[in-house]
Design a protein that fits this description.
Blueprint (H helix, E strand, L loop, with lengths): L3 H9 L7 H13 L4 H14 L3 H13 L13 E7 L7 H10 L4 E7 L9 H5 L11 H11 L1 E5 L6 H12 L6 H15 L3 E8 L8 H17 L5 E7 L7 E3 H12 L12 H18 L5 H14 L3 H10 L5 H4 L1 H8 L4 E7 L4 E6 L1 H13 L13 E4 L6 E2 L4 E8 L5 H10 L1 E4 L10 E6 L2 E4 L9
Parallel strand pairs: 1-2, 1-4, 2-3, 4-5
Antiparallel strand pairs: 5-13, 6-9, 7-11, 8-10, 8-12, 9-11, 13-14
Helix pairs in contact: 1-3, 2-4, 4-9, 4-10, 5-11, 5-12, 5-14, 9-10, 12-13, 17-18
The protein binds uracil.
């Protein structure tokens, strides 16, 4: 007879490995409601502390996939399907640009199941839902229909697709149980296996604001993700180890990040006055290049990255994004009039505050972990399961690491509800997350540092985008 308390105790005291049947039963009973949230939370914390074996992780992932349906792609002349997933970052809006960018090449599809905000990191789904009407809860048949019609879709987990991840994800978010290689593996790979793509690209982050602070841990996570995917029939999977120390873009928050993505998708000319984030562009085009090369392995990786960069810069991916927004029910004026959307749509009690430099100097650091938690406090994330986020809350940076600032310059604008009780504390905490010093700041190191595949990890050189 199965006893959930004995099951939790087995992990808590590392008495032995769980059997496949025990993991299956625990998860099934959780989904049926006889195992309670508090019991699951206790087990998740025990896993955070003591881990799971590779076999247990594979079984957990399989059970999470089998908790719902898997996509069944039907046509024989089907396009190549490739997806990407990030382990989570701050100001990491890559997926919102990447999916339409890759789909804009035609005969390649991106069936993406993404998540909501998780701990201090933002979630693609919360961001896209800041567009009025944008739906992310399509069932299997609708998901496939939109993906085949448009070439990409960004949906989330729910009653029919990975319900186990939907429930566990929401619980992990608010119980401090995100930081665990087997739990991250189960969460990410169950979604990706259920999509049944031909291949997968992973962005495994390391640094102060990543769930794997050190490169060694990120490498272990990469191997766990790849091996678990393979054990469940998903391959090939390749990926990158990428740095997550500073906010990746110019904005943090749900709508604010979508706005930044739209500005990127509009493209730019060499003499443009719009300053885009170098880190964001590099992440997008290197991962898009990898996805294109999965589809066509005879073409060089460098040429795929260059092709992706030129397509992004030309603005040609914007119409694919608009098609996706329209197919998912979103208000298209959010895209066509993105600069006025917030003013037109946000409630009147949304206020902003300009945080200014208190000295001259150079920006040496903006601590992304602090930025992420401050965004949550402003209302962009959750501290209780099932609550809604404030789509307008967040911040827009006026400088990045390496920039010179003068006393009185605006460093960042914060957006939140006028009634937010801890607003003043957020302003001060955000100021303290900046390091401004007299000496010139060193150039930020490369953002993508290593390539990973089942054969191991190698250092990588980024493809130069200079002069393109
Ligand atoms: N992304 C996910 O989908 N799950 C995690 O646990 C972390 C990042």
């Amino acid at each position: 007879m199965f006893n959930p308390v004995e099951f939790i105790r087995t992990r808590r005291f590392q008495l032995r490995e769980h059997t496949d049947e025990e993991i299956e039963t625990f998860l099934q009973q959780y989904l049926q409601g006889s195992v309670k949230d508090y019991q699951m939370a206790a087990w998740l914390m025990a896993v955070c502390c003591h881990g799971l074996s590779a076999q247990e992780t594979t079984t957990l992932t399989r059970c999470m996939v089998e908790s719902g349906e898997q996509l069944q792609w039907w046509s024989s002349s089907e396009a190549y399907r490739v997806d990407k997933h990030s382990t989570g970052g701050v100001s990491d809006s890559v997926s919102i640009v990447l999916a339409p960018l890759v789909a804009s090449f035609g005969n390649i599809q991106v069936p993406m199941m993404a998540g909501r905000g998780l701990a201090h990191t933002g979630g693609t789904i919360d961001k896209l839902e800041s567009i009025e009407g944008f739906r992310t809860d399509f069932n299997v048949a609708e998901f496939q229909q939109i993906c085949q019609q448009v070439g990409c879709i960004i949906n989330t987990t729910g009653p029919t697709l990975c319900p186990a991840d939907a429930k566990l994800y929401a619980l992990r978010d608010v119980t401090g149980t995100v930081w665990s290689i087997p739990l991250i593996t189960g969460s990410i790979m169950s979604k990706k296996i259920a999509e049944r793509p031909h291949s997968l690209v992973l962005d495994i982050k390391y640094g102060v604001a990543a769930f794997s602070p050190s490169r060694e841990e990120a490498q272990q996570l990469a191997m766990s993700l790849i091996a678990t995917g393979e054990a469940n029939g998903l391959c090939p999977t390749t990926g990158f180890l990428t740095r997550m120390d500073h906010p990746l873009g110019w904005a943090t928050g749900n709508w604010l990040e979508v706005w930044e993505c739209i500005r990127l998708l509009q493209g730019w000319k060499d003499n443009t006055t719009v300053r885009h984030s170098r880190a964001l562009i590099e992440l997008i085009v290197h991962q898009a290049g990898e996805m294109l090369q999965h589809q066509n392995p005879t073409v060089s990786y460098e040429s795929c990255v260059v092709k992706a960069y030129q397509q992004l810069k030309s603005g040609q991916a914007l119409s694919k994004f608009m098609e996706m927004v329209q197919a998912q029910g979103g208000d298209i004026t959010a895209i066509t009039d993105c600069d006025t959307y917030m003013k037109r749509t946000a409630p009147v009690d949304t206020v902003s505050f300009a945080l200014r430099a208190r000295r001259d100097g150079y920006v040496h650091d903006i601590n992304a972990l602090e930025v992420g938690w401050i965004a949550v406090a402003l209302g962009a994330g959750r501290t209780q399961a099932g609550t809604s986020v404030d789509p307008w809350a967040g911040m827009r940076f006026h400088c990045q690491v390496g920039d010179a600032v003068r006393e009185g310059d605006v460093l960042v604008e914060l957006y939140h509800k006028s009634t937010l009780p801890q607003a003043e504390a957020c302003y001060e905490r955000l100021y303290q997350s900046f390091t401004i010093a007299s000496e010139v700041a060193p150039l930020p190191p490369p953002i993508l540092t290593h390539r990973v595949s089942k054969d191991g990890t190698t250092e990588m050189e980024m493809v130069s985008l200079e002069g393109l």
